[in-house]
Amino acid sequence: MGIERHMPGRQPRTRIQKKNTETILEAALDVFSQHGFRGATLDQIAKAAGLSKPNLLYYFPSKVAIHRALIDGLMQTWLDPLRKMRADGDPIEELLAYVLRKLDMAREYPRESRLFANEIVQGAPNIMDKIEGELKDLVEEKAKVIEAWIATGKIAPVNPYHLLFSIWSTTQHYADFDAQVRAILHPEGDSHFTDAAEYLETLFRRMLTP
Amino acid sequence: MGIERHMPGRQPRTRIQKKNTETILEAALDVFSQHGFRGATLDQIAKAAGLSKPNLLYYFPSKVAIHRALIDGLMQTWLDPLRKMRADGDPIEELLAYVLRKLDMAREYPRESRLFANEIVQGAPNIMDKIEGELKDLVEEKAKVIEAWIATGKIAPVNPYHLLFSIWSTTQHYADFDAQVRAILHPEGDSHFTDAAEYLETLFRRMLTP
DNA sequence: CGCAGGTTTGACCATTTGGTCAAGAGAACA
DNA sequence: TGTTCTCTTGACCAAATGGTCAAACCTGCG
Fold it and tell me: N or C end: fewer C-beta atoms under 10 angstroms in chain A?
């Protein structure tokens, strides 16, 4: 009984497997984040990874498998900044720290941000389960925390869901709409992130101060 | 000398041409906004328009021509809300009215918003000229207006560019990330836009009040 | 009606794309 | 050293895709 002929199992077993799966995911992040799922091709990814196309398909069974592996690996990292928001800290400082962490992620991991943006703009066909699962659960948990802070008068009353939406949108904007931001500001490197941090800190501090 | 064999000129001449070009652009808006340029296919657009593929190519010479025609027609509408911001009105009310107009557009024209979002997330390959032209000019003009308002003390001092970015991102979020917003709030129809309007009005009023 | 123009489409084409396969090249280990 | 398992790839395939073309079909108008 032949079962699966070759194709490594879910976890890389050898050094070469580990190195190559990493190389592939790195290249795939480049390509998927730039062109979206349908716009990306295996040839592009293979070329970016310096491997042959059949070799990609030795490590991953299909194009969508590569995409899924990427998203799975990233979702964890992506939700980290929100998870780190502690209910027992100072409310305003916790929220502002969250804003700045999110902005840092937009600067450090713009490809990851664009990967999600591409996916969600197109209706989230491949990650809706994760949005309705992990993300939604975390958001509801944190919305309760924010409501508790409001109840104690530590922050001004605001709709916690729309507060989170506005934090996401304003910070991710600098990654997702990078092309537009740069066309308008034509900054040197990432210099505009300093201004963005100052602006967003002011924006949300004024919003939240009771 | 045959010149162009058939293919209508830039402007529709007959009723049928007018009707069909409109049908095609409408269908193309559906498809491009959902899948991005590379992800959209002529077959999809043809099917959505109820026309045959060769018939599409009778009215438009190529896929990119359809896309370009769409973008050209939309850029005008897209910049309207910002154009309407009057330098001689009450600063805070002008800016808040702009925010609400932008939010209205996200509700009324989500496909248009996603069309631009798709394009810009992927590096704006087809519209960079317009961003660096019309959009940039308009933004610089309005940034000066905002700075003048700040100089007179009518609004709190803020970076006008980042203010505009935050208005764009927070409002367009409800169109571009609609799938995510709905997954988290699961609203009936557009009911969440009422909460969004209230939230954003509060957010920017607090930001701008001196 | 007749017919000159605009309109529509079936059949076709070259290229691209995701994916397969069998055979060969490398490692590893006894 | 030989053998077994891992890794790599050139050649190939079917489907999808953007686009062409000649022939047929309308339609308005004299």
Answer: N
Chain A residues with CB-CB distance to B177 below 8 A: 117, 120-121, 165, 168-169
* Burial class of A17 by CB neighbour count within 10 A (0 to 12, 13 to 18, 19+): middle
Domain CATH number, residue A20: 1.10.10.60
Segments in chain B forming alpha helices (H):
15-39, 42-49, 53-59, 63-83, 91-108, 110-121, 128-130, 136-151, 160-176, 178-185, 192-208
Q: Which nucleotides of D are covered by protein (CB under 7 A)?
A: 6-11, 16-22, 28
Q: What ipTM, to 2 d.p.?
A: 0.92
Residues B55 and B93 occupy one common structural domain:
no
The reported pLDDT for the residue numbered A142 is 98
> Does any strand C atom come closer than 7 Å to the Cβ of B109?
no
Distance of CA A195 to the CA centre of its chain: 22
Which of A61, A83, A99 corresponds to the end of one domain?
A61
CATH code of the domain in which B167 resides: 1.10.357.10
Domain of A175 in residue numbering reads as 75-208
Say how many domains are in chain A. Answer: 2
Same domain? For B186 and B96 the reply is yes
Task: Write out residues in chain B with pLDDT < 50, as ranges.
Answer: 1-6
Asked whether A173 and B169 are in contact (CB, 8 A), the reply is yes
pLDDT in tens, B20-35: 999 999 999 999 999 9
